[in-house]
Amino acid sequence: MSINTFIQQEVLQARLRRSGIMVIYDPDGRYRDLCLELASDARRVIDASDSSIESREAALVALQELGQPNASLKELLIYVPARAPLTDEERQRDPFALYAACGAVFPESDGDEYLSLCLRYKADHATEVRRVFAQNPNPTFAMIDAIGSGTGWPQLQALLHVESARDLLFALLAPSDAQREALKSQEAWIAEAKALCESSLGLRLTTRAKSWGPVAEELWRFLLFSEFVFDLPVALPAALTDVPRALPEARPLVEDQCDRLRSDQRTQARYIERAEGIEKDLKLADACRGITDLGLLDTFPFEERTFFSQAVDALQRDNVDRVRQILARHGRSVWVGRGENQAQWQLLQAAAGLISACEDAERQLPDYARSQDTLIDFYVGSLREADRLQRELEQAVGDIGYGGEASAGIATTAAMARSAHRRLTDRVQDLFVKHLERSGWPPAGRLANADVFDKLVVPAIQESGRRVALLLIDALRYELGVELAKQLADEGQVTLQPAFAQLPTVTPVGMASLLPGAGRDLKVVRKNEQLGVVLGDQALPTVTQRMEVLRRQYGQRFAETSLKEFARGKFSLPATAELLVLRSNEMDGDFENNPEAAPGLLSRTFQQVRVALHKLADLGFQDAILATDHGFYLNTTLGPGDVCGKPPGAWLNVHDRLLLGDGSPSGANFVLAAGTLGIRGDFGQAAGPRAMVAYQAGVVYCHGGASLQEAVVPVIAVRLRVAEPQAGKQPTVTLTYKRGAKKITTRVPVFEITVGGGDLFSMDVVVDILLEAHDKAGGVVGEAKPGGPVNAATRILSLKPGDTVQVTLKMDEEFQGKFTVKALDPRTLTTYSKLDLETDYTV
Questions:
Q1: Sign of CA dihedral 179, 184, 189, 191
Q2: Is 495 helix (H, G, I), strand (E, B) or coil?
Q3: Which of 121, 159, 381, 669 shows its CA 20 to 30 Å from the CA of 349?
Q4: How many CB atoms are closer than 10 A to CB 456?
Q5: What pTM value is reported for the model?
Q6: Do residues 354 and 277 share a domain?
């Protein structure tokens, strides 16, 4: 087919068939002859070249004929040797604009430009077409027809079972196993491959080898380096000027091939391996060391590090839009598949999100500052999001550490985000204390934590035969309760509401406040210069005494154990038990002992809760109520003066955030009557820092005092339901690692998880997945790193059939040897998929 025939059949006739009428504007006279050739009994062609008046009359007559019933004339084409009108004023002067409005017009868009038509016609010779146009902007049809004339690649097409030059090049770069075997079977294709590379890319292969390997190596280097050069906005360093690269005309094909290699899941790993090798061979990082702007693409891994630096710099300059642009573009980068890089970008994203959220909250804060109630509503509704983002930032910092090339950027980024959160927290705390002095605690007319048992648990267990579980989760602050409630939606009907903790917000007081009658009978007493808790006349120094209160009241209807033991199936539930208390203090213990690592350990408790609720439903429990003793604040911006001096007086220090006793106010402290803060017992007054600091230097994990983070806590009620068997074929979960590799060489390996379709009934099913690495004894030696598809609080992925994601596994620093990676159902801990691997770290 000639270019003339291509334009006639594939462009003009195809469009005319759809519209019936078409006006062709052609100021260069390029298409006049081929338009006249289209005339037939059913198609009238009117040429406006000679006489405008006569052509207008002829067009009007033809239009009338088209409107007649059973007319033999079916199509009208009007050829106008002039530029198409662009403005309304020009269209008013154009006698043929009416016909264009009734039908179609050519050219209609950039796709109708002569160059575009030639590229479509000679798709396999696009580079040569562009080269011809660069030399002559108006080549003849004969010149276009001559491009690639007599050339072809029959042997390559037969061997590789693909037709186009684009697909042939891709097959030479990354052949399938069958294609590679075919290339090995003979050498005759080499000549065609050289011709293909030269005609499509301008690459003259220099290898004299007769096998696929050297050809592919040269082609990979040429393509990747060419894309790098095309994207580079500055002059190429002198050390690289002699490296072969494509001419500008080949840029679209080069970028197409590189993008295809990066985005195709089957070739990503091969791309990474090749790009890393080429970068090393060409010493690109050294050659480009002085260049700060490398363009938009990260063809090679060293470019990704410069983009990270650019994002950090933009964050420092408060250019949030620039940070978002870089983050959005990097999210599609192939280098995010490397665990170390992924961790850095996740930290940057967490920092940017926290800074933005804090700025938004500070702008809104004046609208919610007028009363204690409005401030609490703001915290419960949206302000607590800043605490969630701060926790996720600290989790990212704990996961990544400060080693490696990007350490300065990571430290700077974390410091900026922490400072933004601290500024917001200080403003909120100042307002909170002022309202505390006016209104006291707990807020009037709201659910006090000390009334949770009597108001929520008692009515449930009063119903005969109803089984209720009370889960006491130590240190479950409100924002964590929100995240946990989201994860429990599959277990039944979930209701979340805020409650207001008993002061001081420490475990002995808070857990005692969750017992029957606590709102009426709980007292805080002084015993041997230590804080004591009494319920009525019963001292409650330990967990045993607190559980004994319930055992005396409910007898054989009561049972209790730890959440961990119950989730592991190591507790035998008595048949008479109707009230089961499950206790967990792991989160509080982790924060007390290692606050830097604790945010990354929260998921253990969340997983235990989910498994426990699933078991409770199977055991016939109808209700589960989750409550906590206190919240907390993470003070990660500690400085030399970040400590509060005590006010004058005789005080008992409670966990460095609250004082009980007698004394006088000072500028840095509030001092209130103990009863004003809901504290009954031996103490006349209570005092606390006005700022979010402690009475001792270096306290990161802050609780015990009065703040929104410490004293606003969640209560989650779940109306349990037994899971019904799902109809139809369920989705499958496939777990893969580096195209079948059996060893990991990094402590942050990246795995690919794919959820396959089941049947029509399961296409909308959300599959929750817990990814863990287990040693031979079943111990957890690796967990999914939060970020991207992995929930930061629960470490669970929620995917739908058809989803494919990459997940980084963080391995235990101390572990080496054989292990199994498992994709688990987080509710039942059954295994969807698993891989047996072993470590092979470079020491």
A1: positive
A2: strand
A3: 381
A4: 20
A5: 0.75
A6: no
Whether residue 687 lies inside any domain: the answer is no
In the numeric block, which tokens belong to residue 363? 């702008």
Considering the domain architecture, whether residues 104 and 160 belong to the same structural domain is answered as no
CA distance 232 to 229: 5
Please say if the pLDDT value at position 339 is more than 80. Answer: no
56 in Cβ contact with 103 (< 8 Å): no
Residues 652 and 655: their CA atoms lie apart, in Å, by 10
Residue 775 lies in a domain: yes
Q: What is the CA radius of gyration of the chain?
A: 36
Q: Cα–Cα distance between 49 and 44 in angstroms, integer?
A: 15
Q: Smallest Cα–Cα separation from 759: which of 738, 800, 731?
A: 731
Q: At what angle do helices 268-282 and 251-263 cross, to 10 degrees?
A: 120
Nearest CA among 10, 21, 24 for reference residue 43 = 21
pLDDT at residue 276 in the model: 93
CA–CA separation, 225 and 697 (whole Å): 55
DSSP 188: T
Do 290 and 329 share a structural domain? no
Residue 591: inside a domain: yes
The pLDDT tens digits for 737-759 are: 987 889 998 888 889 899 987 65
- Six token digits for residue 687: 């005092």
Pairing type for strands 831-839 and 743-744 reads: parallel
Structural domains of the chain, count: 5
- Torsion angle, CA of 718/723/728/729, rounded to 10 degrees? 90
Quickly tell me which residue has 């933009």 as its tokens: 314
Q: Positive or negative CA dihedral for 785, 787, 793, 798?
A: negative
- The region that residue 728 occupies, defined by phi over 0 for left and psi between -120 and 50 for alpha, beta otherwise, is left
- Which residues form the domain of 738? 732-839
Contacts of 148-151 with CB under 8 Å at 24 or more apart are 148/122, 148/124, 148/199, 151/195, 151/199
Q: Where are the alpha helices (DSSP H) in 693-828?
A: 708-711
Write the pLDDT tens digit of every residue in 748-789: 888 989 998 765 445 667 889 999 999 999 889 999 988 778
- Does 620 lie in the same domain as 480? yes
726 occurs within a structural domain: no
295 & 311 share domain: no
